[in-house]
Amino acid sequence: MSKNNDMLGEEQSGPLMADVARLAGVAISTVSRALANPGRVNEKTRAKIDAAARQLGYTPNAMARGLRVGKSNVIMIILPGSLYYGASQVIPQVLQSINRSLIQGGYNLMIANLDRDETSERHILDLAFGGTVRGAIIFSSKLPEVDRRSLANANLPIISMLFDMSDAGLSSVVTNDREAVRDATAELIRLGHRRFLYLAGPEGNYHDVERYSGVIEALEAAGMSGAAVVRSGGNLDYQHGFDIGLQAAEDFAALAAKPTAVIATSDDMAISFMSRMQQTGLTIPADLSIVSFDGSPVCAFCSPPLSTIEQPVEEMGQAAVALLLAAMEQAEKEPTRTVIRSKLILRESMAAPKS
To answer: Per-residue pLDDT tens for 54-106?
Structure first.
């Protein structure tokens, strides 16, 4: 390895720091200082170096930069899919909570992806293995894995949110999906409902398993069988919640014995389903009661206002950051499972069935 590359820790790919120095007309050591400690280089020289770096498309090796200025203060956030689509209704709120907590701890937040295709997965892994980030919080999804590389092997502190991965060795922050849906179903039973339609997420998904189990447990506790509930969906991800709701409306229309209550496992499903039902002439809740899961703010402004199970987004964000900081300081070595309770918000979309 050459002396320059030994000093800088750069890989032989793309433009090098020496190229930036040559174009800017300064010494390599000056470029190094400008990147690692900008205050030590005068503004005119910094501007020349910045312009040269942009022109060449130069990006300093993240690990080498970390060795000069200390460990990275960037925390990577990995989303299950697009930020503002489908099941992500509550994610902006969680991100706000996480961002506030990270700033208080002196860290910066990086959203690593807006999709989970192979290109995005590869990018996430490059960030993790390249030393760009200090830790990661992953939302409601499995760890990225491409070309036999897995985020689990990046030697990076990782916290799972909204998806229990404690059995796989990751500390997890979750809510009480099963218990919350059980309580919501029990409330519908108390109101007098005996036939139910369940709007499902993808079959086998952690959230769907927990939430559907809550429905069954409530039915059993009331002395009813699982035959009292009809499942709709099961073949689309939560990100496609609006589509799941529309499909459920078609399934409802095809049923001979119509359910009187609907339990949707995301607000998006409930909103599109309720809209389609109203278009057919049904009245909510006189003809059909509806309750959903997530607690996104839009539910309060639906017509009628939608009953929903509100996830404790602020508390979950704070808990995830606290666990991550502890993991980065090696104060927390064993994976933990932190459960923060959701609560049922009763609104006008639920009522007793017609006699």
So the answer is: 888 776 554 444 434 446 789 999 988 755 444 456 778 888 899 999 988 88
What's this model's pTM, rounded to 2 decimal places? 0.74
Query: Would residue 82 count as lying in a domain?
Result: yes
Residue 61 burial (10 A CB sphere; 0-12, 13-18, 19+): buried
DSSP notation for 247-309: HHHHHHHH-SS--SEEEESSHHHHHHHHHHHHHTT--TTTT-EEEEEE--GGGGGSSSPPEEE
Per-residue pLDDT tens over the stretch 185-225? 999 999 999 999 999 998 888 889 999 999 999 999 999 99
Q: Which residue range forms the structural domain that includes residue 245?
A: 177-310
Residue 162, sorted as left (phi over 0), alpha (psi -120 to 50) or beta, turns out to be left
166 Cβ neighbours under 8 A, 6+ residues apart? 160, 172, 335, 336, 337
Residue 68 one-letter amino acid = R
Q: Is residue 166 part of a domain?
A: yes
SS3 76: strand
For the chain, the helix, strand and coil percentages under 3-state DSSP, each to the nearest 5: 50, 15, 35
Are 177 and 336 in contact, with CB atoms under 8 Å apart? no
Same domain for 269 and 225 = yes
Q: Considering its fold, how many domains does the chain have in total? A: 3
- pLDDT tens digits along 156-167: 999 999 889 998
61 and 98 part of one domain: no
If asked whether residues 225 and 198 sit together in one domain, one would say yes
Tell me how far apart the alpha carbons of residues 290 and 270 are, in angstroms, rounded to a whole number: 7
